[in-house]
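In the previous chapter we treated chains in isolation. Here, by contrast, the input contains two separate entities that must be folded as one system, with a combined length of 323 residues.
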Amino acid sequence: MTRPNTLSTVSERLRDGVPVEIAVPEFLDMFYDCATSAGRAAMVRAEPPPTASARLDALLAAIAEYLTKQFTEADVPPWVGDPDRILAEPWFTTTSTADGMIEYLSFASPAEFRHHNIFTDFAPLARARPPRPLDRG
Amino acid sequence: MLDLFVYGGSALMLASNFRYATEDVDVARIEEPWPAWLTTVVEDIATTNTWNRDWLNDAVQFHLSPIADRAADHHVYATFPRAGGDAPVRAVCGLRVSVPSAAYMLALKLKALRINDPAKGPVETEDVRNLLRVNHVGSIDEAIEVLRRFFPRSARDADRERFFLKHIWPSENERDDPPEYPLDRQ
């Protein structure tokens, strides 16, 4: 299957049972391979359909917000701020329950993830292939 | 003959009994230009499976150890045609696929250590824990020594690695079936 090139497609694949550790990295490779701000913004502009998982719905919004701010010159799409995309309880993206790890993630998590009550490592969503430089021509 | 060195999740799928899926195939840089037959085969496989044409890519090259040995730190997984008899491999094979040793694989995982990634964190954590076990690494210091063997500069300042390892260290009896990396036994 070709890699998803919009977050909506990612959401559909997640609903179809594709593991998040496959669907999201494949999308990231497509996003980072796009060299224009407009092209990248288009990949996250449309609101993805719900996945039936509050965590995944919030994660998709955090991904859209983070990628838009870090790797485009566009405005963050409005759907990102939907209250349904903000978790009621914090989600620490670790298998550890140790206080030290929770505290680390509380400080390390980028603001775009904290906004959605998701606490992850600094510089998340990295891939072996770095993002292509933006073509500003 | 083309030597293909496979890394990441694909290598674990080939060499271990604890990884079952990956999103692409990471290989060491292949000499340019690619042989015509390889380009054709890669495109045919992409078309047949409706995959992206860069499903086989060398983006991992930047992350590899410059001091890893192509022979000592890798295992031949397979050849095509299959090697056999007394003929030297180079005389009969057009393709040889190799994967890193379990120690080199662990070092690569420790260098990246993406255990808290919101999408891949749980899988990465399990990969590291399983590789610690197949390498019979008994302490965080031993794990850092494996890292040092391949990435000495990273190991000199390994506070982050030590912190993360402390929080994901596998317990003695957490799995009935111990992880395996059978190629290390050959």
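Chain B has a mean pLDDT of 88. Strands of chain B lie at 2-7, 25-27, 56-57, 74-80, 95-100. Compare these points with the single-chain example from earlier in the chapter.
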